[in-house]
TrEMBL record:
One Pfam family recorded for the sequence: NAD_binding_2
Residues of the active site: 190, 197
Organism: Nepenthes gracilis
Residues bound to NADP(+): 15-20, 38-40, 82-84, 110
Name assigned to this protein: 6-phosphogluconate dehydrogenase, decarboxylating
Chemical reaction(s) catalysed: 6-phospho-D-gluconate + NADP(+) = D-ribulose 5-phosphate + CO2 + NADPH
Amino acid sequence: MEAAAPALSQIGLAGLAVMGQNLALNVAEKGFPISVFNRTASKVDETIDRARQEGNLPLFGYFTPKDFILSLQRPRSIIILVKAGAPVDQTITAMSPFMDIGDTIIDGGNEWYQNTERRIDQANSKGLLYLGMGVSGGEDGARHGPSLMPGGSYQAYSNVERILKKIAAQVDDGPCVTFVGEGGSGNFVKMVHNGIEYGDMQLISEAYDVLKHVGGLSNDELAKIFEEWNRSELESFLIEITADIFKVKDEFGEGELVDKILDKTGMKGTGKWTVQQAAELSVAAPTIAASLDCRYLSGLKEERELAAGALREAGMNDDVNAVRTGIDKKRLIDDVRQALYASKVCSYAQGMNLLRAKSVEKGWNLNLGELARIWKGGCIIRAVFLDRIKRAYQRNPGLSSLVVDPEFAREMVQRQAAWRRVVGLAISAGISTPGMCASLAYFDTYRRARLPANLVQAQRDYFGAHTYERTDRSGSFHTEWSKLAGKGNNSVAAFHH
Ligand SMILES: *[C@@H]1O[C@H](CO)[C@@H](O)[C@H](O)[C@H]1NC(C)=O
Ligand SMILES: *[C@@H]1O[C@H](CO)[C@@H](O)[C@H](O)[C@H]1NC(C)=O
């Protein structure tokens, strides 16, 4: 007797590394039968085993692209979760011969947005639909509810909306998924999310550095403070895991593991892309750039050790680094909390303004409030304060910067004294706080009605006749600076431009 053919699956997933397996199990657990595929057969078996162990979930494994595709209900939708770049093209090439007009490919990797735009065109030429979908939340998020940032074909999104809304993280105002926009917008938004994540992690590490090296706090005290902060305006995933980190003992010796970890940061490239795009679009993103620079400098471990030695020999005073005496710990802790919050607001302002600039360039029509909403749950930067960002953009979708929203403006003003104290203390103690300093400089530059750019303009006109505008009359002006300064010689302008 022949076995009945299994009912067709509602969706497929190819690429069963950690993220892929977890996302597939999530889909199955929400009651949507799913087909899975991987070139390496053992990955398929592993996923099937997990689906059985985690409650006989409706997950079906296939070992060839053809069987995989033909096991799906039409119009078919497949999610691919492989390494960005060439592996995505290879997977599409393997799958698309078996797909029909109206079927959809969803790339869930951290892909460069322009690659997605190229693939959208290729897919369209075959009658296929395409989505580039940012997925954030790590393996746990993928399994229990990630934040999803799909962009590309709206029709493709509608076909899978039901599923995406069920598998995404759920927060008080809905599932953490929305149709982001056309083209590569989903990947772009995920990229900026990651850039903001770099900034958050950098700022938290600076808060730790100041508390530890200026305040002299122990890991035990740090764990308690981060737990406390997790019940404040800073409540967020990254603050929460930081509290946990300080509690973990070193299994090989005395003390806590955190102190034994090599101070060299890894990275995968989305932070760098964010900074490159900011420069490309003439958007200032100094906090995110500072966090990227810090990762580069952290990588120079051997050089930094040599530098420490060279400067000590040159007479660098050791008390530059010493824990301050006579510090009011309680006040320092409270100041650092405020400095961290204010710095974070500036970093998000930069990320949001980068998104807006790109949206204008590409005509994506991004809804910044809605993006803040889908980051409230599931993703690495999830935080209570994203709800405030959402509301700021709901109040005023054209908001030029978060720091001038009336609510945030009030908070920034309330925190600025503490913020300046922390940065000042860190600078005099020789503790680098590039993220907090970048945020503060961003704030102070942005809020000042008059900057020393007048002098830069004068210099440009002096050596390059670039002309300048005046504050008191319209038109562009050029001045024979060197003649009027009494030098009676114009050679500078002539030589240098
Ligand atoms: C299958 O698994 C391997 C790792 O075992 C991975 O490199 C590959 O990209 C996966 N994806 C597909 C679609 O085969
Ligand atoms: C942080 O806050 C969240 C939400 O209130 C809570 O679920 C979590 O247990 C807290 N974590 C720590 C380490 O305090």
